[in-house]
Amino acid sequence: MRLKIIAGNVLWVIATGLLAFYVVRSSIVEQAATDVADETQRNFQVLQRSFRLAAGEFTELVRGRAATQEASSVFNASGTDSLRTRAHSVANSVASWLADPARGLGGRPEIVLITDETGRVLARDLDPERMFDQQLTQTLPVLREVLEGRAVHTLWRQRSDNKVLRVVAAPIRSADGRVIGSIMVGYDLSNGFAESQASVLGHGSVGYVVEGVFYSASGELPVLEAALAQEGPFKAAVTESLGSRQTSSRVEFTVNSETFLGISGPLPGVDSIPAAMVSVVNASSRLERASAANIVVLLTLVAALGVFIYSFLIGTSLLQPLEAIEDGVLKVINGRTDYRIDIADGEFGGLAYRINQLINMLTGVEESDEEGHTTSSGTWGGQTEGVAGATAPTEAVAGESADGSDANLAAQLAAEPAAQYYQRVYNEYIAAKQAAGEDVSNIAADRFIERLKGQETSMAQKKGCRMVRFQVQAADGQVSLKPVLIN
Fold first, then answer.
1. Distance between CA atoms of 485 and 487, rounded to whole angstroms?
2. How many domains does the chain have?
3. What DSSP designation does 135 have?
4. pLDDT (tens digit, 9 = 90+) per residue, 148-183?
């Protein structure tokens, strides 16, 4: 029984806790997955706007320098050598000006060069000989638009250095507004630039793919390298977005046992070479929020332990009196008809009292209750003895509290020798039974006296008196033994 109480309660708590864990964790995972998907889409949109903003600021800075008197003064020089020297000086000056941290471009540019009105390089910064007289309209066709009067931001693969540059080319105009040349400034599409772009994001990384090859990224660099490799899980989506010139849908891929969500799309405003931007968010790290549900398991275990202890105590408190009752009934069945069950438990005390009443009825012995009333039955019976009808309850006689005649009776019974008393009660009991017309052949004197002694001892202990004696009473054909308490 104890095991059933414990197992039932503990299993219920564990089942409820596990169900709560599943529900809470599923809810967290579902919400986290939705958040990651939304964040990936939102990040890509933010990165597009950030790239356009960076391109616009870059363009305005270069356009501003191209519009200065310093830039147009290059073409006031006479002679090729003088023109080259002047162009080299202005290119270095522009590079130094842009290197100022206040410009927000991340340091000195990779290249600053000045061309004439045909797109031929006059000079560049740092090394005046390098790239001299090179026709850029062939390697960078978009320069033709610049020479027509429009500033352009684009990408340029500088194959000599194997770099991809973010370049802005702006026209240089004469005093009368004619385009007399151009100035071009280039910064590497570097990891540092990617980091600056990703800084506007709460979570996630940005990467750049140029001509189908991964070039730079922020944050998850090894992840993007693996995802965008030739057989990488994200490669196909990037290739498709470049071919369609459309933003891809969200793509889920796995690298090193971690799950990521990515979106790819063409780099905004870049038409000179195929270039894509990718936004990647680590879904696994966000889904780790589901570990918060583990507290439910911990609390379930604590609750299960508490319920186990409580159920054990409750089960024990229920079983101990039941076991005592069972043991007492077994003793009576085995012949100890003088034994009475004494249970102090409030839950089972009433049951023990009723069982004692039943034993008294079956054995024909009166037992007074807490108010001095007796519970009586007809015969002194056993497993082999007959049973007669029950008599009505009568009052027990207490030596100290009785009136004069009862006190005298108690004194007489106390003074009577035990052997004489037991024999007299037996004889009176047999005579009363015979007078009532009952068969007394199965009531042996020794067994009757033994049970009578047991009843006296039990009742004396229960009532707290010195001794108990019995009187035989007969009324309306019913024979009973009336206890007399002697203090």
1. 7
2. 2
3. B
4. 999 999 999 988 788 999 999 999 999 999 999 999
